[in-house]
Amino acid sequence: MRIRRFLSFFIAIAMVILLCVSCNKNNDKKEHEGEIIVATWNKGNIWSGDITEWVNYFYAHNYEYIKNNQMTMDKVIKLGINAYCLIPILEDYLKSIDESVSEESIELAALNYMAQIDHTYQDEGGYNAWKDGIGVTDNFIYELTKYGIYTSKVRERLVSELEVSDNQLIEYFAENSMNYATPVGYVFNTALIEVLDQADDEEVANAFEDAKAFIEKAKSGTSFSDIQKQILEKYTQEDGYTLAPYYTTDGTFSKTDLDAMPKFDDLDKYLEELEAKYTEKGMDKNADKKSEAYGFYNEYLFYVYQGTVVNIFRNKLLEIGETYDTPIHSPNGWMIVEYERYNENPWAKFEDVKDQVKEDYIASIEDSLLDKYCGELLEKNNLAYENVEFIPNEVTAAETTAAVTQQ
Prior knowledge:
Blueprint: H1 8-16, E1 19-20, E2 37-41, E3 44-47, H2 48-61, H3 63-67, H4 73-96, H5 103-120, H6 126-134, H7 138-160, H8 166-175, E4 185-194, H9 201-219, H10 224-234, H11 244-247, E5 250-254, H12 255-260, H13 267-281, H14 292-314, E6 328-330, E7 333-343, H15 354-380, E8 384-385, E9 388-389, H16 394-405
C-alpha cells in the first residue's frame, strides 16, 4: 500500500501517552524513563520504546483495515510485541536445528529490500521518504528483514514435517472443485519472447526473429514444454524479463468466449482496420509509458493478439499438437501458440490434479500453521500483554487520513 506521508508523528506522540493499568517498579526504570511497560515475558519487561517502530510499521501496513474498523489498535500493538519477541525465540530455534542464518545474508537481504522499496516508491521520494513517513530507521529494516527470513524458514520447516492424508486432499478438492475446473473449449500453450521496450525497433525485430527460430524448433519435433524451458532459460528475471514466466504457460479459450468475440473472415483486413482505429485514437509507441497515447498502443497490441488467437481457433487453423507458424505481437512481446487439445469435460479428476491440490492445500494452511506454532512459542516464554491504549492526536490523525486519500 503506497502512502505518501505516513504516520510517524502520530505514533511517536501516541507511544508517549500510552495508558497502562499498572506500572511496576523495575531496576531498568531510568533506562526507559518516559516509557511504560507494554508486556512481560521470560526475559523481563517489554517497554513501549522497544516496540515503537514495530507498531509504526504494522499501523502503516494495516492502515486501511484500521480505518475501516477491521482491525483494532490493540491488535496492532500485539503484532508489534509478538514480532519483537519472536526474533530471538526463532533465532534460538533455528540454531537448535542447525538452520541458523548468517549476519551477512541478513544484511544483503536488507539492502536488497531497501533497494526494492526505493524503486517502488521512487515517485514519492524513494526509500528515505518511505522510511521517514512510516517512522522507522535503517536498523528496523534490518530487524524486519531478519523477522521475515526467520518466519519463512520456520514455515518451510513446518510444511516439510507436515503429513497430509489423501482424505484431507480429497475433502479439500471437493470443497474447491471449481478451482480445478477447465472451461469447455480450446486448451493451448503459450511462450513469450519478452520485449522490454516496444519503442525499440531493433529489440522488437530481434525478438521476432528469436520467436521464429523457436517456432521452427517446435515444428521440427522439439516438444513445446522444452521450448518453454529454453525460453525461460534465455529470458531470465535476472536480466529484467519479469513477464516471460507469467505468459509462458497454458490457457483455455472457452467456446463461450470464442462465440462472443468479434467475427471476421479476413484476419489481415481485421488487423488493418484495428490499426486505423487506434491510429485515429492517437496511439504512439514512442510516447511516455504513462501517457494515454502509449496506453492506446498497448490496447491495440492486446487486440492484435486476441484477434489472431480468435482467428486460429474459430477457423481451426491448427491441428492438435501443432504450433502456429508466426509469432503474434502482444503488449509484452511476441507470443508463440501451440494447440494442445479440445476440452469437452470441464471437471477435473482428483488423480489428475492431485499434486496441485496438495500444493494448494498446504498453501491454504501454512500461515495458520506458523501462527499456531509461534503462538505456542510465545506462550512457553510466558508472554503477557499489559492493558495499553493509544490516544491519537486529532490533528495528526486528520493529516494521516489526507495522506492516504491523496494517493
